[in-house]
Every structure is written in C-alpha cells, then in structure tokens.
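Changelog-adjacent note: as of this version, every example in the card shows the full chain rather than a window. The one below runs 154 residues end to end.
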Amino acid sequence: MVEMADIRPGDSVYDLGCGDGRIVIAAAKEQKIKAVGVDIDPERVAESRENVRAAGLESSVEIRQADVFDLDLSGADVVFLYLTPRLNARLMPQLRKLKPGARIISYEFDMGAAKPVELDREKFDRYGEQRIYKWIVPWEESDAAGWDIFRMTP
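Full-length structure tokens:
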C-alpha cells in the first residue's frame, strides 16, 4: 500500500481506521515523512501509539482518537483507508475536497462509482486474494457502482 501511494518527501499522510498503526509506521520508516493515524477505537489507538513508540517514531507519527467524518483532510497528499464500502462512500464528499493529485489507497474495499486508476489483486496471506485500490483526485466516476459486500449484484 505504501509503495502504491507514491509517497514523496514532504507529503502529508493520513491513515483512516489505522488499527495497530502498521501503515503509518511503514510510511514514516520508508519515506521519512510525517504521518497521522486515526481510529475511533480507544484500544486500537493505545495499541498503535505503543507500536509507534516501540518503533521510535514518536516525532514522525501522530495517532489520534477521532471520528474520521470530523476530520479536515484538505491538506492531505495521501489518505489510506481500511473501511467498509459504505464508510468509504460516506467519506467521498470529504475526499473530493483533497487537492488535485492527492492519492487515496484503500485496502480491500472500493468507493462505489469512483473509478480507481490502479487495482492490485494479490494473495498477501493464506486467506485468499486481497485487493488494493488507488484513486488520484479528482477521480473519474463510472455509471454503475462496483461490487458491494452488502449486495449480490454489481
């Protein structure tokens, strides 16, 4: 995901639904940038803060406990998502406000009618194929939404 994001020096990176913080930690280590992880679950926030501390990246990575729908993402160059399709779709109005050229990377779930510029399907573990989507702002919209785990048809 970090490689697909094409992170550059000085980029502002956010991970929404950061879980244990692994993506912001990897981005800060590999690309030497500052990153913000956001999660609503206090247990995940505590876990990710501990992982950031253990990695020695407290000066590069900030972990916030917040609702992703209350964030100002206007300064973000890269936004990572690991949210359900419905949450991704709810975020689209916020993500549309990102500056042109900003990259959005989503693990496993699409953003409805937003056409990705890249889709990587790989077997990352023993549980089968996973997908990583990439969009660049502004994205192109298709006439038909993609597959949704809550529906049986596209």
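Structural remarks: The two ends are 25 Å apart (CA to CA).
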